[in-house]
Write a sequence for this structure.
């Protein structure tokens, strides 16, 4: 019998169980996305080649570390609310709703164009989560809002490498 779907019989004081369960589900979705993102960022770090390689290679590690901390913060919030954060590899694959990152070894522009699209999904879904959480839990809403500020800055860093002088993104 697996305990991965069990939840505690309590939640944060002052929060009703339905709000807690909906908050946990929203946070779980964000946790899965951020675990996937941190692995994707490391994959790109290892496989990017070409002009500006070192700048991109060195830009990605701080993003990996920050996203890892975001994931931990979300997992701990899930546990605080009585949920069970599940971060095993198969469970992440089973719960994600997007396709695997498909580029292996690739040029800076190829990887960063694809990474920009990854950030579009992550950041757009963080915004949707903020909207959902605004009705459920202001603490979780603030947490995701704070993360989004960093994630949007990371996307800006990526876009600075693939933006033309006229402001067009090269994908």
């Amino acid at each position: 019998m697996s305990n991965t779907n069990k939840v505690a019989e309590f939640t944060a004081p002052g929060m009703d169980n339905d709000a807690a369960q909906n908050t946990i589900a929203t946070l779980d979705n964000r946790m899965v996305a951020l675990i996937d993102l941190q692995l994707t960022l490391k994959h790109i770090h290892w496989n990017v080649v070409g002009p500006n390689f070192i700048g991109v290679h060195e830009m990605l590690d701080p993003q990996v570390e920050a996203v890892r901390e975001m994931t931990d913060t979300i997992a701990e919030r899930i546990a605080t609310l009585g949920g069970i954060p599940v971060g095993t590899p198969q469970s992440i694959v089973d719960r994600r709703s997007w396709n695997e990152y498909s580029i292996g070894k690739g040029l800076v522009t190829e990887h960063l164009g694809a990474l920009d699209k990854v950030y579009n999904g992550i950041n757009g879904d963080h915004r949707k989560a903020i909207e959902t959480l605004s009705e459920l839990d202001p603490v979780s809403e603030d947490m995701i809002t704070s993360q989004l500020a960093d994630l949007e800055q990371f996307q800006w860093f990526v876009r600075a490498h693939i933006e033309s002088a006229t402001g067009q993104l090269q994908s």
In short: DSSP finds five helices and two strands in the chain. The beta strands are 48-49, 106-107. Residues 17-162 form a domain with the Ferritin fold (CATH 1.20.1260.10).
